[in-house]
Amino acid sequence: MQMHKYIFKKKFDQYFLKDKNLAKKIVKNLSFQNYNTVVEIGPGLGILTQYLLNNPSHKVFLIEIDKELISFLRKNFSISKNKIIHRDFLKWNPEEINLHNFAIIGNFPYSISSQILFHILEYHQYIPECVGMFQKEVARRITSNKGKKTYGILSVLIQTFYDVKYLFTVKEKVFFPIPNVKSAVITLKKKNEIIYCNKNLLFQCVKTAFNQRRKKLKNSLQLFKYIPNFYKIPFLNKRAEELSVKEFLELTKEIEIRK
Ligand code: SAH
Q1: CATH 3.40.50.720: does it fit domain 3-190?
Q2: Which whole-number Å values give the CA distances from 206 to 82, 201, 203, 209, in the listed order?
Q3: Closest Cα to atom 5, ligand 1: which residue?
Q4: Ligand 1 atom index nearest CA of 88
Q5: pLDDT on residue 194
Q6: Largest CA distance in the chain
Q7: What is the pLDDT of residues 82-100, one digit of tens each?
């Protein structure tokens, strides 16, 4: 099937890359080290997939929601059928197929990029690396630092587990159809040392704090005020946007030990 013959499905956020060199460049950012499996989310017509398959030492799994594309991929790529998975990535659990150490790559469907990232975080212990194309604005948020307008929930939660890098911006015209936003490619690499903390509590703290990002934490985190000595917790006079990732982890620990 040629690209011009395919009818794009808006409901699946289908914007396909046309530029092969760019596809190659994106795949090149995978290190292929310390894992032997790569999972591609939303392979579409397989422009990234073809370069993934150049690495015969690595197993490749594809997860695609669109049935029509699944038959296309099964016909055109020499990957065993059970590795071309017809599924909504957000409902996919890597444990089902015993995957415990794999990288993720994708030109992700933009309308669900936050959910994709939260799904990655849910299984972060299995995912040492991720190379992904996001809407530029989301890529900026993921890689942002304290004090910046774009610093928020995604920045803190992703950077708790991963070192992040904004690689490059991608223009609209390399896609078909042409989207109305710019894109960007970023990498996530699992931190060598992840500071221990209660993950659920961290998520709750970060989300609650950023819901009222300009308020001091002693006000935005009122849901914890029942905790003994709540007002002695450090950082409470700061605002969410002023706290570094490390400080959020410390804050979470302080709440945890008092609970
Ligand atoms: N990787 C291809 C296609 C990108 S478009 C390229 O670069 O050209 C996004 C792709 O994600 C589409 O193929 C779309 O069908 C798929 N997709 C959308 N929602 C999905 C979901 N929830 N789970 C898995 N795939 C999804």
Answers
A1: no
A2: 38, 9, 5, 5
A3: 14
A4: 23
A5: 79
A6: 65
A7: 999 999 999 999 999 999 9
Distance (Å) of CA 187 to CA 27, 29, 134, 158? 11, 8, 11, 11
Mean pLDDT of the chain: 95
Q: Which amino acid is at 41?
A: I
Q: What pLDDT, on the 0 to 100 scale, is given for residue 4?
A: 59
Contacts of residue 183, Cβ cutoff 8 Å, sequence gap at least 6: 107, 133, 134, 135, 136, 139, 169, 170, 172, 175
Domain boundaries, the chain: 3-190, 199-258
How far from chain centre, in Å, is Cα 198? 20
Give the residues surrounding ligand 1 with Cβ less than 6 Å away.
12-17, 41-44, 47-48, 63-66, 69, 88-90, 107, 109, 112
For residue 177, whether the previous peptide bond is cis, meaning omega lies within 30 degrees of 0, is yes
Beta strands in the chain (DSSP E): 16-17, 37-41, 59-64, 84-86, 103-107, 129-135, 162-170, 175-176, 183-190
Cα 108 to averaged position of ligand 1 atoms, centre (Å) = 6
User: If we measure between CA atoms, which residue out of 137, 138, 184, 133 comes closest to residue 158?
Assistant: 138
Instruction: Output the pLDDT for position 24.
Output: 98
Atom of ligand 1 at shortest range from CA of 108: 9
Which pTM does this prediction carry? 0.96
Q: pLDDT value at position 108? A: 97
Q: Which atom of ligand 1 is nearest to the CA of 133?
A: 7
CATH homologous superfamily, domain 199-258:
rRNA adenine dimethylase, C-terminal domain (1.10.8.100)
